[in-house]
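Contributing new complexes? Match this layout with flavin-adenine dinucleotide.
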Amino acid sequence: MRTIVLLFTRDLRVHDNPMLASACAVAERVVPLFVVDPAIRASPPRRRFLAESLADLRESLRRLGGDLLVREGAPAEVVAKVAAEAGTRQVALTSDVSAYAKAREKSLRDHGLEVRTFPGVTVVPAGKVLPSTGGDHYKVFTPYWRAWEAAPWRDPSEAPASIRLPDGFTGDDPRKVLGAAKTSPLMPGGEQAAQDRLDDWAPRSADYADLHDALAVDGTSRLSPYLHFGCVSPLALATDPRVPSAFVRQLCWRDFYHQVLAAFPKLATEAYRPNADDDWADDPEALEKWKAGETGVEVVDAGMRQLLAEGWMHNRARMITASYLTKTLGLDWRAGAAWFAERLLDADVANNCGNWQWTAGTGNDSKPYRRFNPVRQQARFDPDGDYVRRWLG
Ligand SMILES: Cc1cc2nc3c(=O)[nH]c(=O)nc-3n(C[C@H](O)[C@H](O)[C@H](O)COP(=O)(O)OP(=O)(O)OC[C@H]3O[C@@H](n4cnc5c(N)ncnc54)[C@H](O)[C@@H]3O)c2cc1C
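Output block (do not edit by hand):
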């Protein structure tokens, strides 16, 4: 009898999850497993979001006759142990691009496990479209976007009809394992919550192209944390007939940074453009004021306080606050990226560091010397001061 361990990572969903669908199609028994790696420090809101997402996934798997094991430890060691208990060496995993994800996959193989990987973290897998002029990735967005749109996209996967665990296996309560805090009505985690958010937003998304930069308007999808943890499939979003093309273009930015990270794994630590790193200033006091939203520059402080309160920040505010830190204060983009990584629900290496480097002028921006003047940005994107008033009172 064939048994496969399903190692869930950033794919916490049952719909359009090729890893889950493919394994369930070929194996009589599967062991759905999530491993909480203590090496990854997560802020309480992120643990809360993850715990809710896992609880929702567990419910879905149970409805199909299965369950979800949630264990803590070094992923490869935990997987090897669970696989041995299930009498198998086969592991299915959604492919991911960060240095951490690649090291995890290698470690699984080093533990003697047979690993099969599947797409699902991006619309188009990193490395699937390559520049005709050569090179292992696209460095500029617009040509990537054209190639991305023209590339063949995989067909979405159906959720499995049923799931069977090996005898004697039972699931775990993710909230207990993660010790997570109480739920948040603002952005509850999980596939169902993502679907609810999409169903709420999609019918009013026609104005996205006009409204997505307006700071005070809830004009963007706020799906980024769900995309980060894979509670919603990026492919399902990109092919949803209700969403506008301007939104699909943003999903392409997400894929773009994933293929950059796949080719340049040091994106979190080193300037992407050779020799682009500045002589950054060292001013811990200014950094702390920026983090606390106490710079005295209204729109910057409003953005930073939204981050503290919601674990999310409007994209325009992210650009303004990041530009202020790096180009006005002259502080190192790595310090800003680290603070965002700590506080954002949606933080991931590809999008966070890709965008920080773009803003700091060390990354993929074709105009690396551009600087956002916060006063002019506020006049343009918060003309009535509603956003600033909301966060500064
Ligand atoms: C300094 C800085 C740091 C950022 N850090 C992150 C991060 O850690 N994680 C993250 O997901 N996004 C990050 N972004 C990109 C962007 O700000 C967020 O994706 C967006 O604000 C999320 O809100 P939304 O879901 O309502 O976006 P929407 O406008 O509804 O866009 C839909 C989706 O497209 C993707 N997307 C949109 N804009 C971008 C972009 N510029 N780059 C890559 N993907 C994009 C996101 O997955 C987003 O959920 C950062 C941007 C900046 C300037």
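Reviewers usually confirm one structural detail per submission. For this one: The domain at 266-392 is CATH 1.10.579.10 (DNA Cyclobutane Dipyrimidine Photolyase, subunit A; domain 3).
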